[in-house]
Amino acid sequence: MEVGTLILQLNWSKKRKVSETNLVFLQTVSRMLGFKKSPKIKYYTFVYSSNKPNRRLARRLMPQKSEYLRYIKTVLERNRIWDRRTIFWVCPKNFDFPKIVSAFNPDLVLADVIDDHRGWYENNMPEVHRLTENYREILGLSDIVLANCQNVKDSMSVFSDNIHVVPNACELPEFNVKYNMPGDLKKIKRPIIGYVGNLSSRIDIPLLEHVATTRPDWSIVLIGSAYGSPDILKLESYRNIHFLGVKKYDVVRQYIGNFDVAIIPHLNNALSRSMNPLKAFVYCSMNVPVISTEIHNLDELLDLVYVSRDKNEFIEKIELALAKKKSQYLSEEQIVLLKKNCWNERVAQVLSLINDKLG
Questions:
Q1: Which of 318, 192, 209 has its CA nearest to residue 257?
Q2: What is the pLDDT of residue 342?
Q3: Does residue 36 sit within a domain?
Q4: CA angle 113, 116, 43 (to 5 degrees)
């Protein structure tokens, strides 16, 4: 990341709460200073200076972009990576990755196509073309290609004929856990109808307006970033819609655990069709009733999710979930289904593919 771009992440406006940019800045700086680490994972971020005239001080303190490969080499050697078989695992939106592979020649390259990112740039054809060529190059040099859903596999099949679908998953359910009520949630009256995720162009804004006006006694809580999607902020005018901003994953579970109902109010568009909603797995594993619009890629969890075909049915399904009340316990069928779709199973699937390739 260019240092000027990093600094511009800082947001001092009134809308900073609903933007992830300040969090990106803090996370990046913590990696640079070595504060973000764990016993098994080490985090690094390459921050460089450009040659712009107003970056003179930064040029003295920061490396140039041309030093990127040298930086990677230093990090790998410092951690003795070459003492064992080496896997480069990439999300194919990294435009520098082909030259990294060429420079270091790892034992295996794994491309993890989380979403088809071209869906974010429908009105920016130069960026769509740039991403297309990047997919073509990275998937062409990869030994293993993962896609998070069938739609992504289909869209990537022009670049590779050996793509494995590995959907998102859940953490194994926790039993007898009481989730503390966060302070900003305490101020909001029940029932709480909650959403966690990116507040992007996949959100059905008219649907949320319909719910807010039809059921003014319900509180709709939206947690996540609205950066780049200002349209959704018009919902702040509704007294029963609450934007709580961006939360770290380790605290967001406290919020979800206190929802009466969790929702996935997504539009059925090109963007949502190439996504496998991680939030659905998290909601279900925490035993919160889930109401979703009729979208793609919910196959694994359809038995645990109320799916609505229109805005009136969306409200009916929320009413049904509220009437049944949130159960404290998971049924045996729920536990079996969640275990089948937990991260342990997904990791085992990926490790099997890697072991087969490496022999």
A1: 192
A2: 92
A3: yes
A4: 45
Q: Are residues 200 and 291 in the same domain?
A: yes
> Is residue 148 assigned to a domain?
yes
CATH code at position 302 = 3.40.50.2000
Range of the domain at 13: 1-83
Q: What is the pLDDT of residue 343?
A: 93
Contact 55, 3 (CB under 8 A): yes
Name which of 136-140, 186-190, 271-275, 300-304 the model is least confident about: 271-275
Instruction: Please choose, from the candidates 147, 173, 163, 110, the residue with its C-alpha nearest in 3D space to the C-alpha of residue 297.
Output: 147
* Nearest to 32, CA basis, from 40, 23, 43: 43
Q: Based on the domain organization, do 327 and 197 belong to the same domain?
A: yes
Percentage above 70 pLDDT, the chain: 93
Query: In terms of domains, do 247 and 133 share one?
Result: no
How many CB atoms within 10 Å of residue 252? 19
Q: How far apart are CA 135 and CA 138, in angstroms?
A: 5
- 135: exposed, middle or buried (Cβ count in 10 Å: 0-12, 13-18, 19+): buried
Say how many domains are in the chain.
3
DSSP result, 102-146: HHH--SEEEEEE-S-GGGGGTT-HHHHHHHHHHHHHHHHH-SEEE
Residues 6 or more apart in contact with residue 99 via CB below 8 angstroms: 69
Average pLDDT of every residue of the chain: 87
pLDDT at residue number 52: 62
188 and 328 inside one domain: yes
> What is the average per-residue pLDDT within 203-224?
96
Backbone phi and psi for residue 144, each to the nearest 5 degrees, phi listed first:
-135, 135
